[in-house]
């Protein structure tokens, strides 16, 4: 069973990596020679993909009655796709990989919050204390 300290540590690193990814993705894309207009399109695509992917993964979580396995799946695929992003050279392939990254990474936040809530109830602490 996860301890409260482990859960808080996980949340800290999750949000740290999220802020790094969102903040430095435009810088990375710019260094790869992607135009400012294309970067804007890629960044705004994240919101559109999130509208579809978050309900999709929430439905899967409810259907299969598991948050932890889907959280591990989405994060694992995000890491794999994120690693592949560094190996590709074409703008089209990079665009597809970033889209897939959004599809798997963006739903991990609501899944993580659900996981946090369930564990905080099981441990017997307030949900807010887990996130601090």
UniProtKB/TrEMBL annotation:
Question: What keywords sit in the KW lines?
Answer: Cell inner membrane, Cell membrane, Membrane, Transmembrane, Transmembrane helix, Transport
The organism encoding this protein is Tumebacillus lacus
Q: Where in the cell is it found?
A: Cell inner membrane
Which PANTHER family does the record cross-reference, listed alphabetically? 3-PHENYLPROPIONIC ACID TRANSPORTER-RELATED, BLL5896 PROTEIN
Classification via Pfam families: MFS_1_like (PF12832)
Task: Give the SUPFAM superfamilies listed for this entry.
Answer: MFS general substrate transporter
State the membrane topology.
Multi-pass membrane protein
Transmembrane domains' residue ranges:
12-29, 41-59, 71-104
> Major place of localization?
membrane
Traced from the root, the source organism's taxonomic lineage reads: Bacteria, Bacillati, Bacillota, Bacilli, Bacillales
Occurrences of domain Major facilitator superfamily associated (ranges): 6-131
Q: Which protein is depicted? A: MFS transporter
